[in-house]
Design a protein that fits this description.
With 355 residues, the protein is α/β, with parallel strands linked by helices. 39% of the residues lie in helices and 14% in strands. It binds N-carbamoyl-L-aspartate (NCD).
């Protein structure tokens, strides 16, 4: 696979100086996403195509023959899962997605077992992975590292695509893609995502999944976004500025109870207290979803959560069909398989497959 031509020969300084739109364009390889770093790379058209492909993969994989076909697509490729920040779902669903498409995988999850313990930089580690693998899926504590690595690998001897599986408190684009796929499927019979009201609840200041999804939702028509959080954890000004610039209707609310009855989707999140520098306590009484909120929720609405959850989302509602977070998690596997298939340009072959 040839590297994206647009990042080739671009200096790191000029890449950093570009607008997000210009950066996004650099991450493609001939109109196909190559490095997956940020939500801004995904237009409505791309989101529709990705959802369609995920569904095709899901249906094809229902038969043994279908599975055999899918596994043959990328049996000659290898993927590196470089996850130095804790992960259950993202790691496992990427690993399962690779298995669906036949890619072999390796992993580094604990740098105490790699040469980083000998003082090797993360840059050199990633360059090393690129010698042996054809795709690097990475999650790090450090925002911006995936961008740097993508730039470096586009300009290296052996260019390899990078997928950002969560970078600091900044972005988590593949989570947003599976969230969109879940919304597409949930509202399939209700005119799709257009015109819906999405309510975000919890730690909106540091929750990267919310930031990435807030971007993606701007690709849909008349989607209203409401942000429900304690004042110190409200959504950042950069997201507000982006929504204003795109003419998106948005509002804040002080309690979930104020808005729950009007929501089409409630997106719950946990407090990201791993970012706290001192012991902090949060009063979450107005930011929890349980049976009283379920009672007031529309019959057609859904409750989502990127997981892991804590006390903000009561297991009491797990049995309700509107609680879609377990399905959301499985959707992650299909969307990530679709994404990897897109990076390696297997989409036409999958769409041409007849069961
Ligand atoms: C999220 C993350 O890592 O940002 N988890 C996930 O990927 N499903 C959310 C979280 O950790 O709270």
């Amino acid at each position: 696979m040839k590297s994206t031509q647009s990042l080739l020969g671009v200096s790191w300084e000029s890449f950093q100086g570009m607008s997000t739109a210009e950066q996004s364009a650099c991450l493609d390889d001939h109109d196909t996403p190559y490095h997956i770093l940020m939500s801004q790379q995904f237009s409505r058209e791309r989101l529709d195509a990705l959802g369609h492909l995920a569904t095709r993969i899901r249906i094809i994989s229902k038969t043994r023959e279908g599975n055999h076909f899918l596994k043959g697509l990328l049996f000659d490729r290898r993927a590196m899962l470089y996850f130095t920040q804790p992960s259950s779902r993202t790691f496992l669903s990427f690993s399962a997605a690779c298995q669906i498409l036949g890619l072999e995988t390796e992993e580094v999850r604990d740098t105490a077992t790699s040469s980083e313990v000998k003082g090797e930089t993360q840059e050199d580690s990633v360059r090393t992975f690129s010698s042996y693998f054809d795709l690097i899926i990475m999650r790090t504590q450090l925002g911006g590292l995936a961008e740097k690595m993508a730039w470096m690998l586009s300009n290296a001897e052996r260019p390899v695509p990078i997928v950002n599986a969560g970078s600091g408190a900044d972005q988590h684009p593949t989570q947003a893609l599976l969230d969109i796929y879940t919304l597409q499927r949930s509202f399939e019979e209700q005119g799709g995502i257009d015109g819906k009201h999405v309510v975000f609840v919890g730690d909106l200041a540091r929750g990267r999944t919310v930031r990435s999804l807030a971007y993606l939702l701007t690709s849909y028509d008349n989607v209203k976004q409401t942000f429900v959080a304690p004042p110190s954890l409200q959504i950042g000004d950069d997201i507000r500025a982006m929504l204003t610039e795109r003419g998106v209707e948005f509002a804040d609310a002080a309690t979930l109870d104020e808005v729950v009855a009007d929501a089409d989707a409630v997106y719950m999140t946990r407090i990201q207290d791993e970012w706290d520098t001192e012991e902090t306590t949060y009063d979450l009484s107005d930011f929890c979803f349980g049976l009283p909120q379920l009672e007031r929720l529309k019959k057609t609405a859904v409750v989502m959560h990127p997981l892991p959850r804590r006390e903000e989302l009561s297991p009491d509602i797990d049995h309700d069909p509107r609680a879609v977070y377990w399905r959301q998690m499985r959707n992650g596997m299909w969307v990530r398989a679709a994404l990897i298939a897109t990076i390696f340009k297997c989409e036409p072959e999958i769409l041409a497959y007849h069961d």
